Amino acid sequence: MALQRRALLVAGMLAAALPLLLLRPAEAGTVGVNYGRVANNLPNPAAVVQLLKQQGITQVKLYDTDPTVLRALANTGIKVVVALPNEQLAAAASRASYALLWVRRNVAAYYPATQIQGIAVGNEVFATAKNVTAQLVPAMVNVHAALARLNLDKAVKVSSPIALTALATSYPSSAGAFREDLAQPVMKPLLDFLAQTGSYLMVNAYPFFAYSGNAGDISLDYALFRPNDGVQDPGNGLKYYSLLDAQLDAVFAAVSRLGNYNGVRVVVSETGWPSKGDASEVGASAANAAAYNGNLARRVLSGNAGTPRRPDADIDVYLFALFNENQKPGPTSERNYGVFYPNQQKVYDVEFVLGGGGGAAGGGSQGSGGLGWQENGGPASGNPPSGVKVTTGEAWCVANAMVGEQRLQAALNYACGEGGADCKAIQPGAACFEPNTMVAHASYAFNDYYQRKGRSIGTCDFAGAAHVVNQAPKMGKCDLPSTV
């Protein structure tokens, strides 16, 4: 279809352009949070649990099995991942009786009132506890055997978070490969274990580190899920519009080199962006943290978390972290990854459920509210549902290039037609016709629709074809208004 005709198509052609199926959101993943406690000024666990419920956070990952925390989480409906620390790996690997006792005391004693759904055996073992690397998989096997003995192995999965330092090669993504010392000795048996037990691979991925160390070569928009020109992988021809996708696909490529493990899901067990850093930590700021975590959360919750290599994957994500932790060692950024200050005020704004409403105990399903498309294929009402937050400050609605031109075209047709957006400026010869691309035209139309609807939650999604940004998009010489 000629580019000149794109903005001229209206809603009357929508039914012929795409089947309704493509306009419905994919099955969404969930956005959880890492609850670290390396601080001396945090609220007590009961208050933290109330905060989780108020924010609609339904999944939390811990770094230990503190009884006070696990008891506070009981009967909340919040799903929990607990951790067996690196310091206990050797004992769990060498003695099945130790693993059984650990599971009895730290899992079975609280389940099912506390909905423990996973055990992270160790954390970034290859990077922080290299001396016990060889004991990782044996420890996982013994912990799983203990769960099986207690009839908990179906409900509680066993995994271990790996850092991207486990990769020998990560760029381009198609060249992803595990380090030689890990590939066959550790990663292959670990993947075999995950496949056999129906578990998932946990990956800690931080685009911030890659960007901060290579800001001259990596676009900030590419790191923050904002509109960008994309980066093409010369190895497989796939085009990437986000650095996190590229990192995850490097892991998928590394996994595929060891065998067919397509049935093993990936969970992003840690990812985040610091709101403050040292002068050398380029990009650390509250605005960038809000953009990274907010744009990522919207992608996951709207069912668009798949990567170019695995476009249909529904990926769960745990943001790092719930609080700023004042006793963490290292650079300033290490103490400033929190979404909340210890006084429970937000460091910046990020939603854990689409639509901003509902909580862990409130019923509504994650990823289904306020997505922007009703059953008839049209967008939700421009009036925000009761209790739903309307975006304040400067905000724009832009196209998500990753969904492809078919879905963008369908959403553009609706916005310029039945949706009531003013699309005269993107007609041939008009002020915003250039750049003459689908993404630019769709962004203009989506933004006009979004601003006219009062920027209410649910009016910038179009089944994942659009998302909100908080910095003015660059569309050639055309400025997208932040008001109507």
From TrEMBL:
Residues 376-385 have a biased composition (Low complexity). Its EC number is 3.2.1.39. Residues 364-385 are annotated as: Disordered. Residues 395-480 form the X8 domain. InterPro entries: GH, Glyco_hydro_17, Glyco_hydro_17_plant, TAT_signal, X8. Keywords: Cell membrane, Disulfide bond, Glycoprotein, Glycosidase, GPI-anchor, Hydrolase, Lipoprotein, Membrane, Plant defense, Signal. The keyword Glycoprotein applies. The keyword Transport does not apply. GO terms for molecular function: glucan endo-1,3-beta-D-glucosidase activity. SUPFAM superfamilies: (Trans)glycosidases. GO terms for cellular component: plasma membrane; plasmodesma; side of membrane. It is an enzyme of class 3 (hydrolase). It is found in: Cell membrane. Pfam families: Glyco_hydro_17, X8. One of its GO terms (biological process) is defense response. It comes from the Eukaryota. It catalyses: Hydrolysis of (1->3)-beta-D-glucosidic linkages in (1->3)-beta-D-glucans. Residues 1-28 form the signal peptide. Belongs to the glycosyl hydrolase 17 family. PANTHER family: GLUCAN ENDO-1,3-BETA-GLUCOSIDASE BG1-RELATED-RELATED. This is glucan endo-1,3-beta-D-glucosidase. It comes from Panicum virgatum (Blackwell switchgrass). The lineage of its organism: Eukaryota, Viridiplantae, Streptophyta, Embryophyta, Tracheophyta.
